[in-house]
Amino acid sequence: MTMTETMRPEVAANRDVITKTAFFDAPREVVWSFLTNTEKLGRWYHPARQDLAEGRDYTLTRAGDDGGQVALIWGRVLEMRAPSLLRVTFVIEEMGTADTEVTFILEEALGGTRLTLLHEGVEAAMAGRALGLLGHLDPGWDEHLGSLRAAVRSR
Amino acid sequence: MDVQNVFRALSDPTRRDILMMLAEREMSIGEVSERFEITRAAVKKHLIILREGDLISVHSRGREKVNRLEPDALRGAADWIGYFSGFWDGRLAALQEAVTKEMEERKDDDD
Asked: Do the bridges between strand A17-24 and strand A112-120 make them parallel or antiparallel, or are there none, so unpaired?
């Protein structure tokens, strides 16, 4: 499987995407378990409330000040094709209700695994949040916001 | 501008309400406090976090200190990409470390 086969055309054409690759000296199944298993997620990121499952919401938590678990990042598992593709929506507390989308692609490479990560929609989500606040400003601000609005519209 | 501080400042609904009030005009802590059902100390804490995100600045008006909205921090949309890019660099490095450790443990079990 190559990247061009797995990457949806609308992603390839989208400029608002962060792309990262990483190599692992381990089979894809092992890397996959670290992306989907609640306890293993906690070893490099944050533990999930439960193992990830397609079509279900997920929540990553951290220990709160009162000793309880606080939701940190959440979203919905859009697509799961073990051990090659995981696609989730990714909401961060600070972004309110704005969704971004994260895709993990695992490919066999050099006897190990190559992971490609795509994070889409960050700029649109954050610009949307900023516009939501700035929309309450005096109309005199409009001209300053023209370029930002244009940037959001062009997506 | 530290994007993390902007995130933190925007994460709270009360702080977002304060920003919108300050969008209309600058206000002292007392004026902001009158409009919320929380203590003055709590309002002060929110204002400090907003200031750390460079979303507001403090100026003297006579004997009073007033808080003024600084919309520039909100407009730095280009920086969000850089923030998350760095975020994933850190996470993926941690993932590589965790997987390497797991593989070493499996090898030890086989021996």
From this structure: antiparallel
Q: Give the separation between CA A116 and CA A103, rounded to whole angstroms.
A: 8
Contact criterion met (CB below 8 Å) for A12 and A5 = no
Contacts with B11 from chain A: Cβ below 8 Å:
93-94
Helix or strand holding residue B15 (H, E): helix B13-24
> Which CATH number do you get for residue B46?
1.10.10.10
Fill in the amino acid letter for A72.
L
Domain match, B29 and B59 both:
yes
Residues B48-105: pLDDT tens digits? 999 998 889 999 988 899 999 887 766 654 467 777 888 899 999 999 999 999 999 9
No. of helices (H) and no. of strands (E), chain A: 6, 6
- Give the distance from residue B40's alpha carbon to the nearest chain A alpha carbon, in angstroms: 23
Residue in this structure with the two tokens 């593989």, named with its chain if needed: B103
